[in-house]
Amino acid sequence: MSEAPSFLPDYSSMAINGKHRPLFKLFLTDGWRYVRKEGQPVECDSAAQAIEAAKECVKRILNPEIRAEQVHRDALADEVTLWRQKRAGEAAEAQEAALGAIVVKGRQVKVERLPARRVRI
Question: Which pLDDT tens digit goes with each residue over 53-89?
């Protein structure tokens, strides 16, 4: 039975060309990872700044920004109704394309297409 990796964040820096790149790992068994911004490794002027940047990166990973949205119940019900109508229409079109007709409760139903009307709200 293998033991689960131990969670123990660790921070470091690597000196490259006079700059310091922040490094971190979240578990004891992980390898070191660079702190990246827009896909490129971040570079700092000192080792202390690099370690602070690594700590901030781990904080962002462990504590993501949580967003919530309040939706009025009536608006949500309208959206659900529209979604259900759209799905039913798509299912009817697929059935008509496959079978040449729409079948409801075992009986073939005649389909009559009307031009779309504008609805004022």
Answer: 999 999 999 998 888 877 677 777 888 888 999 998 8
**Rounded-to-10 torsion of CA 35, 37, 42, 45:** -120
Distances (CA, A) of 117 to 80, 87, 114, 120: 22, 20, 9, 10
Looking up tokens 């919530």 gives: 68
Residue 1 resides in a domain: no
Query: Which residues make beta-bridge pairs with 108?
Result: 103
Domain count, the chain: 2
SS (H, E, C) 1-26: CCCCCCEEEEEEEEEECCEEEEEEEE
Residue numbers of the domain that contains 92: 68-101
- Summarize pLDDT for 2-55 with one digit per residue, the tens: 666 788 899 999 999 999 999 999 998 899 999 999 999 999 999 999 999 999
Same domain, 47 and 83: no
